[in-house]
Amino acid sequence: MAQIAVIGAGYVGLTTAACFSSLGHDVVCADIDEERVARLERGEIPIVEAGLEALVREGMDGGRLRFVVGAENAARSAEFAYLCVPTPQGDDGSADLSYIEAAARQIGPVLPSEAVVVNKSTVPVGSTRVVERVLGRDDVTVVSNPEFLREGSAVHDFLNPDRIVIGSDDQSAAVRVASLYIGVTAPIIVTDPPSAETIKYASNAFLATKISFVNAIAAVCEAVGADVKDVVLGMGYDKRIGHEFLKPGPGWGGSCFPKDSRALVHIADTAGYAFDLLRGVITVNEDQFQRVVAKVRELAGGSLDGVTVGVWGLTFKARTDDTRDSPALRIASLMAAEGAEVQAYDPAVKAPVEGIAPATDPYTVCDGADVLAVLTEWDEFRWLDFDKVAGLMRTPRVVDARNLLDKAALERRGFTYTGIGR
Ligand code: NAD
Ligand code: UGA
């Protein structure tokens, strides 16, 4: 079993640390955030992620998982150092590598000889070389091993991946990284670093493309009187298309699709290819936020000025507490900019976010509302008392941007219902 340092205790780092320890490795996970580390040492998990708490406790109780402040304190005895730090969007759309470089600078002087540094953060083509240069160590190899987990099912995805991608020019380092996934059954693709780095961006961009495509088809459905639910069902049975990532909604968001799609456009531009298809995918997504606002405006009678909108859902999707680049927040702020009074509820968001102080229950936000907008697909929204909701609202009108609710049942209760593409 290997000694692994994981640098960064966020969605990816914490999941990587907990899962590698559950596979039997000795893991030390480092973060720069002292409070985060203190909470983790007490067994408190700072993010909502199914199964993570149990795995962290199991690792800590078994003595295979520790948390420390500072990357250098994790790296001293590491055979492998996994970089799981942020790669946010820079001003020009490119990925900002400053966290990666800082982490590499911290671990470079202390890594044992023959250690392997692994880029798990999503990094542009050429970053393996950047890390090599910053480390300044001839006896340390840098390997790319991108991560494909989804928030909300991170542990499951890490332990049951569709594939493991390893990018390295050094075959023995690639084999060493592959051997860490002992007990995980998945195809392993060993390739060169630029290909591994491109696989990660191409995969996210393709998924974003599927969603923008289906959101565009939903717009067509509205224009021609078709029902997008039936259309995607009919498309999805074609095995070449598949059912996944064909749910129309308020647009895609989250901590990765927005920044990664822009980063790939930038990577392509810099390399001399104008990726107009992906630019279009991003534009369709921006339009989708506006289309949802337009639906609320229309139900409100043509203007949002002075209109009270109840919002259900603030996270970028259900089963996570993450609000980074959330379509719900974008739509709420666009409505507020048109003069709407937005009152919001989300089962996973308790603290104020981007000027919105969330209510403590879903009914409160319906009180006196002119329109209700469902922006995140939390299952619990389906099972609420809609007679009570209708009674609380000034007028029972709902924009269901996730096609989550039962349209016929709501209309029977007197609601005016608008979904997406139906
Ligand atoms: P995050 O913001 O949740 O976590 C990053 C953590 O790194 C933070 O806790 C931060 O304090 C810490 N950190 C920053 N610099 C550090 C340093 N020098 N030493 C120690 N800790 C440091 O980020 P995330 O969502 O886990 O994403 C990390 C990377 O993984 C990004 O490149 C992202 O694109 C990629 N990724 C994310 C997901 C996802 O679902 N969130 C999935 C696949 C890939
Ligand atoms: C996404 C990818 O699915 C992961 O494979 C990848 O590792 C990760 O990005 C990353 O690189 O960070 P995640 O951001 O957790 O994972 O969320 P997704 O489940 O992909 O959803 C992204 C957005 O698309 C959400 O806003 C979601 O509501 C939306 N979506 C998704 C739809 O509107 N329709 C769909 O059919 C699917």
Walk me through this protein's architecture:
It is a single chain. This protein is α/β, with parallel strands linked by helices and 422 residues long. It folds into 2 domains: 3-191, Rossmann fold (3-Layer(aba) Sandwich), CATH 3.40.50.720; 225-422, NAD(P)-binding Rossmann-like Domain (Rossmann fold). Helix content is 41%, strand content 14%. It has 15 helices and 13 strands. It has helices at residues 11-22, 34-41, 52-61, 71-75, 98-107, 127-135, 154-159, 171-179, 193-224, 228-236, 257-271, 276-299, 327-337, 386-392, 407-412, and strands spanning 3-7, 26-31, 65-69, 80-83, 116-119, 141-144, 164-167, 188-191, 308-312, 341-345, 371-374, 397-400, 416-418. The strands form 3 sheets. Strands 3-2-1-4-5-6 form a 6-stranded parallel β-sheet, with helices on both faces. Strands 10-9-11-12-13 form a 5-stranded parallel β-sheet. The structure holds nicotinamide-adenine-dinucleotide and uridine-5'-diphosphate-glucuronic acid (UGA). Uridine-5'-diphosphate-glucuronic acid binds next to helix 9.
Characteristic key phrases:
422 residues; alpha/beta; Rossmann fold; 2 domains; six-stranded parallel β-sheet; five-stranded parallel β-sheet; 15 helices; 13 strands; 14% strand; globular; binds nicotinamide-adenine-dinucleotide; binds uridine-5'-diphosphate-glucuronic acid
